[in-house]
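User: quick one
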Amino acid sequence: MIGYHFGRGRAKWSPYLLLFPGIFIYLLIALGPSLATSVYSFTNATGIKGAPIEWIGLDNYREFLFMGQASLDNYAALGRTLVFCFFVTTIQFTLGLIVAILVNQKLKGTNFFRTLFFMPVILGAVIQGLIWSLFLYPLGGPVARLLEFFGTSSEFFGGQPTEAFAWVIAVQIWANMGTTMIIFISGLQTIPDELYEAARIDGASGWQVFQHVTWPLLTPSVNTNLLLNIIGSLQAWQLFLVLLGYRNGTQVLGYLVYATGFGQTSGSVTSSFRQGYAAAASIVLFFLVLILGLAAQTVLQRREERILG
Amino acid sequence: MSTTMTTKSAPLIGEVRQKRVDWGKILSYTVLIFFAIIYAGPLLMLVNTAFKTLPSFMKDAVSITDSLNFKNFTDAWSRANFPRYLTNTLIYTVSATVIYIITAVFVAFPIARGYVKHANWILTMFVIALFLPPALIPQFQLMLSLGLYNNPVGYVLLFLTNPIGIVILVNYIKSVPKELDEAAALDGCGYFRFVISFIFPLIQPAIATVAVLHAIGIWNELILPTIYLTSQEYYPITRGMIVFQGVYGSNWPTLAAAVLIMMLPMLAIFLLLQRYIISGLTQGAVKG
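Assistant: Done. Structure below.
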């Protein structure tokens, strides 16, 4: 209570009183439930109102990790989550960086390109997904025609699981590259022009300028983008819902949590409301995010110390 | 001798420079245009399809439409129950954003000023949720036991919190000079009135940023309505769109028109408030 001037006595409590609603709602619907996830993971909770909830210890984890075919499917989903994360992170990072550098030049029309590349970010998974379902229309859509021209073809989202999965990766990158680009642009704008001029006077080539000026000084944005991309892509699954549904051979962990917890019927795969089990699955996903996030953070921080001293 | 040489050759070099093709520029534009095709292509296809008739789409999906067939839009509007869904989304988005912003400023202001004890702890408590497991399942159990399942009020309740917004507001309020508080208090202004009539107007850019980000999130939300709202009369536009896709999945012209209708408000907000959205995203990313 440093320097509070708005009265004494009862008036001193007004900040607390007015702070309360915001904190209460946050604790009730965000922090509380978040912490309770681990508690639920030890129960057999269902989504049915009034059904008894029993403490079953580690059974959910045992089932998730060590129970025959079902856990093999879970490992497959975990593997797919990592594959998705790897491709989305590396490609989105690289493309975002290239595009950011290009639109950050003093060229005509860069504002237009910047706006265009960022736009999908605000559209949300439903629109992003539907737009691409149409663009990848298999019966004579533009991409189908293009592939035909090159003597190949694809069934896109209706194809084999691996093929459909790859297309979801592409749409995910299309949808989110704008965020990566924007963060890189804000990083590029903090690099002083004098450094570029000095490098040019010294006769450095474009690649040398990138290597010795842009890339090291971009380290904070590189770290932010890598962390955001890794964490974001491990948890992303909404486009799978819109584009593929809960299809065998394409599930990622986030979708698995949702489908087991809230029931999802699609073709032959039907699942029930197993919320205790879903909570355990979401704790597994949480640890995956935590471990990869911390590992990335450690590596990136060491690199930053080495580069920026 | 040497002076004449330089004066002679100097304009020559200049001429050569002017005529030399700027390969860097050409390469930049080539790459940018390539990306622009990938980004604008799907949107142009959407617009084109929305104006086509179904037979013409079936015959050739990519041909440019030869008529402006507005019937797709009227069809989508009436058959997709759009007025209802859009109204729902609008009510959810506006009410949740307004309530959230008001409560958030009253959380952020005393934290930024240190007017409550352990201000830093409170802020950390907000940030920490970003790194914890998802709240999805216990949240559902809570809503179920509160009787707020399939209830629009309960649905709005889910959107009354957003930790990143608090962080952005706290940082912005710190830039408002503290002397203002003292001066207003000396004039007899109370705490509540001060926040409402001085802080709110002064931090408008931060409020705009947070409000826009929050509203976009609610507008686009698909998972929560799928979980919590079972009655069709409560569906927001996202959920309604998925239902519509299920029924009209093969009628792409009508579906495209529906997508376009759903997209236009977002697009308008984006083009008008791009500055706020981008500043919010970069701040949230760097601070979070």
